[in-house]
Structure formats: C-alpha cells, structure tokens
Amino acid sequence: MDRRILIVDDEDSITTLIEYNLEQEGYETVVYQDGKQAYEAAKNDHFDLIVLDLMLPSMNGMEICQKLRQDDIHTPIIMLTAKRQEQDMITGLEYGADDYMTKPFSPKELVTRVKVVLRRMQPAKKLDKQIRLAHIRIDPETYEVFKEDEPVEFTKREFDLLVYLVNRKNKPVPRAKLLKDVWDFDFVGDTRIVDVHISHLREKLELDPKKPTLIKTVRGIGYKIEG
C-alpha cells in the first residue's frame, strides 16, 4: 500500500510543488490549506507522515504539532517555515516535530528527508537484555526507560539516541556522526537537531539537568555518556 502523506500549506505554489514531487516517488498525498481542517484530518485519518507549514490560517503549525502530540498521535512531522530564527526550529522540535526545513527549499531535498524520516520510523532491531547505567534502566525489548525505577516517557528518536550513546559508553561521539547514524542523514544536516534532543534527554534523565553527570558535552566534538 502506498505511503500517505498529509501536506499542509496555504500557498498553492508550495502545495503543488510538494504534491508533484512526492507523487513522482509513489506517495499518495492529501492537501489541506487550513490549519483546523488539517488538524482534524491528521487526528481522525491515517497518514504516514505530515509536511506541515508553520504559518497557517485558523491554527498554526506549532499548535497543530503540539495538539497532535497531546492527543498521543505520533505521526512523523516535517515542519516548513519561512522564518530562520533558531528559536523557531527549537520550539518546533520541542513540540514534537521530527525535522524542519526553511523556505525556499529544494524539492529533491524534501523528498530525501521524507524518505529518511519514514525509514527511521521502522522498528529497530531489538536487543536481548536490559541495560543499566547509574540511576537509569533501559529495556530495549519494550522500548522503556526508567529513572530510579520510575518510567520515563520517550519518543522513538530519543530512545534510539540514548541507546546509541549508551552502546558507546565513555566514547565521545561527534554531532555529525550522531546525525548520520541516529537520524540517518547521508547529507550535511543541521546538527542543532542533535543538541535539542540531547537537551531533552538531560531533562528526562539527569538528576540535575543543569549539572549533567550522565550525558556529557565534549567541547568541540559532541557528546558522550559516562558510567
């Protein structure tokens, strides 16, 4: 069955461009230009991925993303924005977006990112035993994480990043390598995505996120887990 992609943007030229390029790759597309209508469609229908503009009539992309995650709907989202400020990207990722692109963008790159995000959402190979490190416990079989034996809610991306670092315990991992191996980006990407997700891990796992003892920054390189 074809993958269904919801395209949400209020510019005809943008939706036509995205629709054409995705359908050329064999994807089925559905287009909405109104935020509230798009939210209802995403909530009540099945889509494999959402391409979501930030600025929309009636409900903006941030609101849609946030409400879908609150509704426990985890359809991957690629957010589009004409704004280039770092805070817009960070806010989008914090609200649950999986990736973002700024306008104008290359249709070829968008298609590539769609493929990468969809590939990333495939179930990872399960490991056989639990992992214990300091005050956390990870169960790769059930995709569960516990902090001092209390369950912690994780997205799949956060889980994959955590397990990747734990499997390389005490070894510094460059941001670019994390972007390639965890995000599956075979092209140069914005490594700030890594920083945002590391911040999420610290907030969820560290006893004091402002003084991390588990997930350390290696200045000029990237990150490592100690333990």
TrEMBL record:
UniProt entry tagged with the keyword Transcription regulation: yes
Domain of life: Bacteria
PROSITE patterns to which the protein is assigned, alphabetical: OMPR_PHOB, RESPONSE_REGULATORY
4-aspartylphosphate modified-residue sites: 53
Residue ranges for the DNA-binding region feature of this UniProt entry: 128-227
Residues annotated as domain Response regulatory: 4-118
Boundaries of every OmpR/PhoB-type domain copy: 128-227
Keywords assigned: DNA-binding, Phosphoprotein, Transcription, Transcription regulation
PANTHER family, sorted: ALKALINE PHOSPHATASE SYNTHESIS TRANSCRIPTIONAL REGULATORY PROTEIN PHOP, REGULATOR OF RPOS
Protein name per its UniProtKB record: Response regulator transcription factor
Organism for this UniProt entry: Allobacillus halotolerans
Lineage: Bacteria, Bacillati, Bacillota, Bacilli, Bacillales
